[in-house]
Write a structure and sequence with these properties.
LUD_dom; elongated; Lactate utilization protein C; six-stranded parallel β-sheet; Rossmann fold; NagB/RpiA_transferase-like; four-stranded mixed β-sheet; FTHF_cligase-like_sf
Length: 213
């Protein structure tokens, strides 16, 4: 008897007492399971888990944000930055004029974006328990391509408003037909020998700025 026969036999035995005309919708399923482990401080949990994924975490208030972004771009040596159309202009107000601003243009090719040093965006929300940033292509986030091709991504999270405890708490807040991108740390992969390589499928460096109003 093959493994396939064993599995199918178990399925048939499990369904032996189910009427043939019964559908899954006919049987109510209790969904009263916990939707979160209720971290004591969701923002601190988010920061810890982002750091575990090798994201660089910074904190600022709204007044200090432009100066912080300017410093992060300068430390990176960035001479160009791509910006979504709805990025609040004050976020880059501290950035020197000689840092070239690149618009999120529909005709921008991967080659064009690969020549850009950094990208600055907002986010849709952040999930504390998994250390995940979710982008949905909103006005302050832009097209998915601009956060996948440049090698350096600065993402601003408004805390605590944009932080949720868990994935089950996040899903009802997201629109499923939008281009959702879930980011847990910088892009990374590993080969069969578990040698980690960053920057293969997205930015090599992810910097997350937690901004309190």
């Amino acid at each position: 008897m093959s493994g396939r026969d064993v599995v199918l036999g178990r399925v048939r035995r499990a369904l032996a007492d189910v009427p043939r005309d019964e559908s899954p919708d006919d049987v109510p399923v209790a969904r009263d399971y916990a939707t979160t482990h209720s971290p004591a401080d969701a923002v601190e949990t988010l920061a810890e888990n982002l750091a575990d994924y090798r994201a660089l975490v910074h904190r600022a208030d709204a007044a200090a944000l432009p100066g912080l972004i300017a410093r992060l771009l300068a430390e990176r040596g960035s001479r160009s930055v791509v910006t979504p159309p709805g990025l609040p202009p004050e976020w880059l107000s501290g950035t020197p004029e000689d840092v070239r601003r690149v618009a999120d243009a529909a005709d921008a090719t991967p080659h064009d974006l690969d020549a850009v040093d950094s990208v600055v965006t907002g986010c849709a929300l952040a999930i504390a328990e998994t250390g995940t940033i979710v982008l949905d292509g909103g006005p302050d986030q832009g097209r998915r391509r601009i956060t996948l091709v440049p090698d350096h991504h600065i993402c601003v999270v408004r805390v605590p408003d944009q932080v949720v405890d868990s994935v089950p708490r996040a899903l009802p807040l997201l629109v499923p037909d939008r281009p959702l991108t879930w980011i847990s740390g910088p892009s990374a992969t590993s080969d069969i020998e578990l040698d980690r390589v960053e920057g293969v499928h997205g930015p090599r460096t992810l910097e997350v700025v937690l901004v309190r109003a």
